[in-house]
Amino acid sequence: MPAYRPWNAETASAIINELKSMPGATLPIFHALQNEFGFVHPDIIPEIADALNISRAEVHGTLTFYHDFRTELPGRRILKICRAEACQSVGCEDIVSHLEAAHRISMGTTTDDRRLTVETIYCLGNCALGPSIMLDGEVIGRADTDLIDDICHSRRNERIGAEA
Amino acid sequence: MSAVKIYVPCDSAALSVGADRVAKAIAREAEQRGIAVEIVRNGTRGMLWLEPLVEVETAGGRVAYGPVRPADVASLFDVGFLAGAEHPLGHGLTTEIPYFKQQERLTFERCGVIDPLSLDDYRAHGGLAGLEKALAVSPAEIVDTVIASGLRGRGGAGFPTGIKWKTVLGVASDQKYVTCNADEGDSGTFADRMLMEGDPFTLIEGMIIAGLAVGADTGFIYLRSEYPHAHRTLLKAIEIAEEDGLLGKSVLGSKRAFNLHVRLGAGSYVCGEETAMLESIEGKRGVVRAKPPIPAFKGLFGKPTAANNVMSLATIPWIMAHGGPAYAAFGMGRSLGTLTIQLAGNIKRGGLIEKAFGVTLREIIETYGGGTLSGRPFKAVQVGGPLGAYFPESLLDTPMDYEAMAKAKGLLGHGGMVVFDDRVDLANQARFAFQFCAEESCGKCTPCRIGATRGVEIMDTIIAGEDSSKTFQMLDDLCDLMTDASLCAMGGLTPVPVMSALTHFPDDFRKVPEPMRRAAE
Ligand SMILES: Cc1cc2nc3c(=O)[nH]c(=O)nc-3n(C[C@H](O)[C@H](O)[C@H](O)COP(=O)(O)O)c2cc1C
Ligand code: SF4
User: Fold this and answer.
1) A58 contacts on B by Cβ (under 8 Å)
2) Most A-contacting residue of B47, B175, B187 (CB-CB within 10 A), to test interface
3) Is the pTM of this model over 0.80?
4) What is the interface pTM, i.e. ipTM, of the complex?
């Protein structure tokens, strides 16, 4: 379970300072910020630009180029569903439709109660045991709609670990 | 009696189906029964449909059981699996399982066998023999050995690795780099991940040898962020290698330095293209660079760079240890050595199959794979990732070799095979190829950036049944344009899955238009 701290500019500055001397530090900084807070607050862009001596436009451009980086707080759990060819061949789109039909959750959104963020991912490297999903950083193979129901209803299931 | 050794993989494919829970259940059961066991967390053997595959070390060798669920553990103890006894989940000696026995494991000789993070285990199984040889010869001799092996890059383009290294070696520079492309973005591929999780020292050894060969003292591994487990394993392995003096100022006491860093990608497929990867390591948007200059002259941070795939680099230790000709003895024609085939998708027995080049698609799908997982008829296989061709049954006798695949208007790519049953609609897959390209395009050139979106629109028209010969002409023209005018293979090869789908599965494209079907009902 990702326990994200609330966004804090001081901690963010400390992270930037710690990493800024790495060659090509932009991505490592984004990753570190996102690990800490769950997202990268756009307000921090000028500070990163100053620290790395590059333009704000470059920082913004890089932040938005990559699918991984979020600029808004995600839900408490993050569910990524692989929708690449190998998972298509074993029915990942049924899982996506089920999420929409049974749980009214569409891909790329966070539930109103902020419990769950659902994202598309292309390939988790678990292509012989699909459909594959990733829940809070853990890959789960042979996913099915029952498993999705348990995740959405925060029900106990040994495959998805404990739920708060 | 000393503790019985039990192997439970910690590979993320095995973990994805419960390997951790099985390891815990075994530990608990052993404790309750007062039996001493030593649980080793190995990599996977690559027989993924059997995961979690538990192995017990016996006097006769390692005996396999799988797929094991926590609920099976008590019954395994009951029958005496610690002595290798029979059980409904038993498969006998692991190395005698036909799927495994019929392979030629060179790059993966240790994966699944050893504890991935034990350098002692690594050494005991032949590790570092290649590096020791490399340290004893000149850079040019290393390059010659790699050229003699015939090794071609396993990342997709198939460029001879030795020739690439020779170029980098020949450039004078105060600083050079070795970069390892571990972006493994192709759906249906997982060989890089499996190796990094199951035998990371092989990659580290290969990168050090690459550094010695081209004159680079620094390496970067660009790892996709979708592989958090491989990330943790690599970081630990690098730390161990540093403590042991394998990495650092003086590699194995040779006074030659090699330092290794890991950088994470961020969910961008195009960052697997080598120049986009270099941009990304430099901290920029993953936009493809125009070539020339090639990375061998002007690569990472503008310095000469040897950029190679994980598989290419991880094969180097074997080649150095056994010699170029020994490696070239495997394979056919201009495709020498072994290919690590990854059998995935709708398949009964998916996994990693390392075989000499030349094995046919049919042998892999039918003999190894055992047909579709669903039990429904086979319809198509996509070979070589999202930019690879869809092949029908009638082309399954095509051998897996670079030239034969090209002749069949496909490509080998990174060796992935995704199998589909008869429920797949190839017009939808063609649409997806364009959609994926549109989502992942770096945006640098128009044929790809705009073309991919046009392609989605054209496919929507065709799928809606409003097809006319004009639409197909447009599709054809668009594919020609993307093939000829795209800057890199992202836009340039997207027509491959599209045109193969259209050529081999025309019925999926020429559906009866919606209104006519309604009228007929
Ligand atoms: C869109 C695109 C994606 C690619 N993805 C990868 C990848 O994930 N891993 C990889 O090693 N090569 C990838 N390549 C190929 C690289 O550009 C390059 O050829 C390769 O890494 C060189 O290493 P090799 O000679 O050892 O194969 C990709 C190429 C393109 C055009
Ligand atoms: S083909 Fe696509 S990915 Fe490649 S350079 Fe052009 S826009 Fe970028």
Assistant:
1) 284
2) B187
3) yes
4) 0.96
